[in-house]
Amino acid sequence: MAKSKDIIYGLYNDEEHLIEAVRAARADHLEIMDVYTPFPVHGLDPVLGLSESRLHIAGFVYGMLGTLTAFLGMTWIFTKDWPIIFGGKPYWSVPAFIPITFELTVLFASIGMVVTFYIINGLGPGVVNPTIDLRITDDKFCIAFDKSEVDTSKVESFLRGSGASEIHSKTI
Amino acid sequence: MSGHVSPIREPLVQGHKSYHDITEDLCAPTERKPSAAWVIGIIISLSLLGFGLFCIAWTIWHGIGTWNLNRTIGWGWDITNFVWWIGIGHAGTLISAILLLFRQKWRTGVNRAAEAMTIFAVICAALFPGIHVGRAWVVFYFFPYPNTRGPLWPNFNSPLLWDLFAISTYFTVSLLFWYTGLVPDFATVRDRAKGFRRKIYNFLSFGWTGSAKHWQRWEALCLVLAGIATPLVLSVHTIVSFDFATSVIPGWHTTIFPPYFVAGAIFSGFAMVLTLMIITRKLFNLENYITIGHIESMNKVILVTGTIVGVAYLTELFIAWYSGYVYEQFAFFNRAVGPYWWSYFGMMFCNVISPQVFWKRSWRRNIALTFFVSIVINIGMWFERFVIIATTLAREYLPSSWSYYSPTWVEIGIFIGTIGLFFTLYLVFARVAPVVAIAEVKSILKTAGDQYTGPDAIHSHHGHGDHHDHSHAMGLAANTDHHDHSDGGHLDLSSSTASSAIASSAVAEETVSIETESEAADGPRIRSTVGPDDLKKIEGIGPKISELLNAGGINTFAELADTSVERLKTILTEAGSRYQSHDPGSWPEQASLARDGKWEELKDLQDRLDGGKFV
């Protein structure tokens, strides 16, 4: 586990407050460590300055890998490795290869994306991440600051002024 | 998803729920002791499963000869059950993937359970090809793996092998999609749990934190998985239909099979979703999340797909006649009036006739009727597969080979066993995981909760979320705050106090109306009182009297509040003697509270009233 951090965080009761507060914090040049929400809040990403996820590009690459594996695999098997005539059709019967090619494209894309998703997020079976506040998965919207990166008193007054319902400090 | 609220759409979350209420309600089934109904359910399911396992063991021990299949009829109940279960699975993917792409918000109430249903149905389905091959212990020969026989590869040109790939892929993708959706909800359960339970749920939740970047990737992942699961689900039943359509058997060799199978699959799947949802919402008190509106939406899908299936049946008959091909003509003639006529008529009645009751709105919204029809459809779709498979095989080209088939107790037992397996898995799932997607319901609350939209709304709404340019004063939006802020150690600021006060009270309307100019221009503000009010909210007024009052020019709470009791009595008297017993004495008073949005006070008043009368 990474070494422990001292953080200060504010909890908001509503996602609209959260978005406003994030915008204000960015305008004040306060370095936000992370924002935690109980559900995906739409409109938060651009305010927070998150760039678009590139996961779908990875998905496309995995999918193409599946396409090639299936198509080239069947081609090699039926034309080079063990050619058999089925019902008088040519060895390289492309239309008959399409269904399996499609299925493997989908299979590779989805497994690849899901595995990538968990790896880049640092999530997986047995992973224990520090809990900032138990209510973040319930009904609280949290903005957290790393105390080593920001002026704590400035952050506190910012959180107070931006409508946070609670402000806490914690070492995680 | 934009923050637009439609005033027409029915609310999808009832009961003025806050985010915290949603967590409480949806986690509850995993946290309390199982109910007696659940225990009885699991005992029955496990018994059926046990019998099924016994029959499978019997089949494997004694061989496939314990079934009544014969030289002519090589596929009987086994493949019928396989196609039936696979079809049922399709509704889960339709709800989770296709409705996600179409931005249908009602999917959030049912997607989790429907996806679980898909996975369990596919498990039940996959069992049948596994055991019907006879030597189940060498079933792995299907897979292309480097073997010592050459290596000798399977026939990639065969639809039966395509089926293997399609179903394995379908199972894997459904499982990944479902579990990825579950991870944040497991985290919610984890953060409420203590001790060993917390450890288990932390393991299941993969250490989920709720970070904004994680949510962004989570949404990207779900969207792409939905995008690829959509053609996948269409391909799966298409390929299942190829098992039949690429053969030379009259009645199977038709190009209509792929679309007809897919429509039938969705049809049967929705029927099973309805069966399950009606039980689930009752068993776990989820009526506020799986509403009548959800049931009605699903009934509409049933009506559409059921009618498509009906058209397909008739098209098959027409083409058989029009083709001029005697074997094809005979196949369909034999289906309808041959020895299996009862299954053909069962299929026609259950699949084509029975869903037609859903043309009527009040019947679509009738739970008992829906439950009954959903069971009828499940039976009908089983008949359809039986008709296609056994009936067609029974009388093919050579009259000397004609035969009749009825199952042995072993075949029936295996089928019953899969039903036991299905319900066992479902009941266990419903105890371990939230059956309604918590995070997804929260994300639609502001646009589909009944306090924000529909006739019951108490918060007027304004665009939020995607609008980047709006700036409004803090503390306007309401969110019930159930946590005690007075216990010191943290700051209790005015805005949270304000928002607690607003919650589920009428103050919200006045407060929210203090809006800045920029916000008013931001999006249309939708007031709850666009159009007539639902006068049935007044105790003592039912649908009939509501119509009478509307006819008398009273459409809103405000109008009712300003109407004298005498005038109301006149309206009732003029309508006939059966309304004599109604006493409108309290109606204007109730209506004035409703007009002012004082719902709490109205509720108090109604608690004191008896059938709308002062006591």
Provide a compact summary of the structure:
The complex is a heterodimer of chains A (172) and B (615). With 172 residues, chain A is an alpha+beta fold. Chain A folds into 2 domains: 6-50 and 137-171, 2-Layer Sandwich (Alpha-Beta Plaits); 55-121, no CATH class.
Low-confidence stretches of chain B: 461-530
Q: What's the average pLDDT of chain A?
A: 90
Could you give the count of β-strands of chain B? Answer: 0
Number of strands of chain A: 4
Q: What is the oligomeric state here?
A: heterodimer
The CATH topology of the largest domain in chain A:
Alpha-Beta Plaits
Fraction in helix of chain A: 40-55%
* Beta-strand share of residues of chain A: 5-15%
What is the C-alpha radius of gyration of chain A, as a whole number of Å? Answer: 25 Å
Number of spatially distinct domains of chain A: 2
Shape of chain B: globular
Gross CATH architecture of the largest domain in chain A: 2-Layer Sandwich
Q: Which structural category do the helix and sheet elements of chain A fall into?
A: alpha+beta
> Widest sheet of chain A: strand order?
2-3-1-4
The N- and C-terminal alpha carbons of chain B lie at a distance of: 49 Å
Shape designation of chain A: elongated
Query: What pattern of helices and strands is seen along the backbone of chain B?
Result: HHHHHHHHHHHHHHHHHHHHHHH
Walk me through the structure.
The complex is a heterodimer of chains A (172) and B (615). Chain A is built from five helices and four strands, in the order βαβαααβαβ. Chain A has helices at residues 15-27, 44-48, 55-81, 94-121, 152-161; strands at 6-12, 34-36, 141-146, 166-171. Chain A has a four-stranded antiparallel beta sheet. In chain B, helix 3 (77-101) packs across helix 13 (367-394) and helix 11 (341-353) packs antiparallel against helix 13 (367-394). Chain B is globular. Chain B has helices at 19-31, 36-62, 77-101, 107-132, 159-190, 195-204, 212-245, 257-283, 292-323, 326-337, 341-353, 361-364, 367-394, 409-432, 438-448, 494-502, 507-512, 517-520, 543-551, 557-561, 565-575, 587-595, 599-608. Chain B is built from 23 helices and no strands. Chain B is mainly alpha-helical and 615 residues long.
